[in-house]
């Protein structure tokens, strides 16, 4: 099995990608790097829920730093943008850059992200950022569009079966409204 770093934003969104990657002969290593999540109490809830689920199913879990300043440094300029705008592109870029670096540090050749599960996000926009990062870092991005084939529906079903916490907003301060 080929190891792959799976950047994951929360437990419900990670559930189906873990199943699919495993079926496709990858060994996912979950990496939680989401300094966009606000407030910190919400960050902790999402992190703990995912860590607990990974432990339950026997998948390796790692947490990145909560670099909230790095997020606000660029995001505040775009605070009034709607979702799918520039703020979101930069947010994907921040999270996926660190994911590719983490893969490199651990000699893992591939990375991907759970972000494409959500029907509220544009997979094309995520792939654009991921492919730029892949070219510059030399870590191969595997472009799974996890929302395809009912991916979102399946992920919510697994979340319900496991009584997972499911958030009501994307993550950053500006998405709470
Ligand atoms: S809405 Fe979501 S993807 Fe966009 S900047 Fe906020 S947390 Fe990031």
Tally of helical runs: 7
Number of domains: 1
What's the CATH H-level homologous superfamily?
HUPs
Percent helix range: 40-55%
How far apart are the first and last residues' alpha carbons, in Å? 42 Å
Please tell me the overall pLDDT: 97
State the strand order across the main sheet. 3-2-1-4-5
Overall strand count: 5
CATH topology: Rossmann fold
Oligomeric state of the chains? single chain
Bound molecules: iron/sulfur cluster
Q: Judging by the overall fold, what is the CATH architecture?
A: 3-Layer(aba) Sandwich
What's the shape? globular
**H/E topology pattern:** EHEHEHHEHEHH
Give the C-alpha Rg: 15 Å
Tell me about this structure:
- The longest helix has 20 residues, at 86-105.
- The chain is an alpha/beta fold.
- The mean pLDDT is 97.
- The chain is 50% helix and 12% strand.
- Helix 1 crosses helix 6 (151-161), helix 3 packs antiparallel against helix 4 (86-105) and helix 4 packs across helix 5 (123-137).
- The chain has seven helices and five strands.
- It is globular.
- The protein has a single domain (2-176), classed as HUPs (Rossmann fold, 3-Layer(aba) Sandwich), CATH 3.40.50.620.
- Strand 4, helix 5 and strand 5 (140-141) form a beta-alpha-beta unit.
- It has helices at residues 11-23, 40-57, 68-75, 86-105, 123-137, 151-161, 173-176; strands spanning 2-7, 26-32, 61-63, 110-113, 140-141.
- The protein has a five-stranded parallel sheet with strand order 3-2-1-4-5, with helices on both faces.
- Bound molecules: iron/sulfur cluster.
- Iron/sulfur cluster binds at residues 36, 75, 83, 87-88, 91, 170-172, 174-175.
């Amino acid at each position: 099995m080929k190891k792959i770093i799976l950047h994951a934003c929360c437990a419900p969104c990670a559930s189906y990608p873990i199943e699919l990657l495993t079926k496709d002969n990858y060994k996912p290593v979950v990496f939680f790097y989401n300094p966009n999540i606000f407030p910190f109490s919400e960050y902790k809830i999402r992190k703990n829920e995912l860590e607990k689920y990974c432990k339950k199913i026997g998948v390796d879990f790692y947490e990145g730093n909560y670099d909230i300043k790095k997020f606000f440094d660029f995001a505040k300029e775009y605070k009034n943008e709607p979702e799918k705008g520039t703020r979101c592109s930069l947010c994907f870029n921040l999270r996926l850059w660190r994911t590719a670096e983490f893969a490199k540090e651990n000699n893992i050749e591939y990375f991907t992200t759970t972000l494409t599960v959500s029907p509220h996000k544009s997979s094309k926009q995520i792939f654009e950022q991921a492919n730029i990062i892949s070219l510059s870092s030399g870590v191969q991005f595997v472009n799974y569009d996890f929302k395809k084939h009912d991916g979102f529906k399946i992920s919510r079903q697994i979340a319900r079966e496991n009584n997972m916490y499911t958030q009501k907003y994307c993550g950053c301060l500006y998405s709470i409204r």
